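INFO  loader      accepted 1 record
INFO  loader      residues=150
INFO  predictor   begin
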Amino acid sequence: MTIGPNDYPQWGKLVKSWATGRNYVDYQGSEENPVPTAPDNKFQKPRSFEEFWDQCQWAQVDLFFDDANNTPVRRDVGIGLIVLQGDSDVFVLRLPPQEILLEHEARFLKGSTYQLPDFYAKIPELMTTKVGRMTIHAERVGEYTLNTCG
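INFO  predictor   done
INFO  writer      dumping tokens
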């Protein structure tokens, strides 16, 4: 099963916090200062699924399984966690789990449609301000991390 968030902007801000060491989750961006610039270790890269789940809760991000029922993910679900982060000198090729790839193929072959997150419809209107562009950036970073890396 794949996992998804209930709140793409918050999820994306959490991912950006882990990737940069800056607290995007609590930062209130403005047109003058749309992104945090100071280091802030409140959201450190999680080392276990339980830490991951806890930090999602602190960031007000609920997690759901992509199982057609949106079953909530529990902290004690028994899933492992590996956090990978490349840099400009290392290319990380992340392959999808075989069972998830095959499950999604079967779903599409049965007629399921590809569902884009709702934020895609808001892109044109949000691209007019720096804060809006950073919101879209957070949503895309969060979606990319889930869909490409997970």
